[in-house]
Amino acid sequence: MDRILHVYIDTAKVGMLTSTDNSGYVFAYDAGWLGSRAPIPLSLSLPLQREPFTPELSKAFFTNLLPEGQLRDHFASKYRLSADDDFGLLAALGGDCAGALALYPGGPEYVFEAKPPSYRPLSEDDLGKLLDEAYIMDPSFLGEEERTRLSLAGVQDKLPVAIHGDTISLPLDGSPSTHILKPPNHRFPTLVENEAFCMTLAKAMGLAIPSVSLRRVRDGEFIYLVERYDRMTSKDGVTSRIHQEDFCQATGTSYRLKYEEKGGPGFKACFQVIGRCRKPLADRIKLVELAIFNYLVGNADCHAKNISLLYDNGPNPSLAPFYDLVCTGVYNLSRQTAMAIGGVYDPRNIDTKAWRIFAEQAGIRSPKPIMDTLKRMAEAISGKAAETANSMIESYGDNPVYGQVIEVIEQRARIAL
User: Fold this and answer.
1) Annotated catalytic, 173?
2) Which of 26, 88, 229, 243 would staple 311 via disulfide (CB 3.0–4.6 Å)?
3) What is this structure's pTM?
């Protein structure tokens, strides 16, 4: 018997995901969606068409909505599913995904009935209990687990939450979240402070970044909160979703291939995607600045799932604000970058030739604009980093990771200059 998931953007039915076994499933757009006034595609890799998509293209898009690694294993065990059962996991977790998508199980005649937004406020004790859930932030032990269907892709532990005033709440019944919460990482104890610092610095350097903050909870520990750029809250407090997709989804690439060395998208492929955006020239400049910022800040983990497109104004997307910016250089991790600069993965070997090839990949005829941007950002970043550290210390107290990140930045800036 076929299993069915109905795919919605907010309250509008977009299509249907149909499975005939545990591994194969196909997506097809709904005729009503195709005939609506201004339909948007789910993905650049899933253009608007009447014919169902192949299992390969369908799987590449929808599996990218799911958690990875031990998070995926945890939820598979919890719902008594195989870790390879993408369809079953989507049915269990697809109520509040990245972007505007929600997936609902039901028969062929299923009709979604919108419910009023519902949230469970989290007390300080609740937040403390969540932090005890080391590596796996699963809120079901708080109760009402049948009403939470939350999915965020990626490996790092995170939880969609809603913030109204000073109250952090858990969305219920598919209600939209407004923020993403990341707890302290037991393997890398300074990770949340590191990310808050790098994101704040990126904003100071002129990159498009959502609002971020740290919040002290139990025993002086900080949680990291980042505002969702794929949500919009009206003046009367109603939150609506905005559709987005990451660059793995846009290129029809499995999450297992998110690193360029593994066969995933590199900058050349990403710039080709940018060419299909609403404002390709402006977005090309933004992506160049992101690549240079990550080089200067020592972030080796900016892969294709850490860059996204936002469908905020019609069928042609725009480059989304940047997120998950961290100085991986302060930890005992591989120096190899997730995407090569001009074919070079080791930042110690990135030279003028590499930046020249990078310019060609970006579709820029002369390397001069790239070199000028590199020089401008390298000259400014050390001073901006010092200002950011002072601001972070004033708001949250000192942390040794700030100085460690600044040391990496100063070294990279000297090499670049």
Assistant:
1) no
2) 243
3) 0.90
